[in-house]
Amino acid sequence: xxxxxxxxxxxxxxxTLHFYEELGxxxxxxxxxxGFRLYxxxxxxxxxxxxxxxxxxxxxxxxQDFLARLNEQASGPEAMTRLADFYREKLQDTSARLAxxxxxxxxxxxxxxxxxxxxxxxxxxxxxxxxxxxxxxxxTQPTMVAAVHRN
Length: 151
What we know:
Elements: H1 3-10, H2 14-22, E1 30-31, E2 37-38, H3 42-55, H4 60-71, H5 76-116, H6 143-149
Antiparallel strand pairs: 1-2
């Protein structure tokens, strides 16, 4: 496929794809007699791989460095071992990040549930009274609510 088709299928701009090529992250499979780049379906896989690595926090230059190190491996098994080690490390990082996000989700949910109890308060209640409110709540204020009132 030509660059325009790859743009449509990948959702990237032509400039982005050319930049990937400049960095050595993407290569056309061939060129036409007129010099136009032609890409195979493998180019879509490479673009998706780049996107995934960016989603886990890699810059394009870091992806370029990683790919260069991976390509330095003399044998397929060595390269696949390095790739597996890399993915294992990233899976641990991602799992830790998910756990932090899950805890944040719980904190936000608890805070919203607590704040729903504030709806029946008199609109003229001074904000300073919120720090010690027990009128509409059975439990203590979640940290994300208490931190606003106590400082």
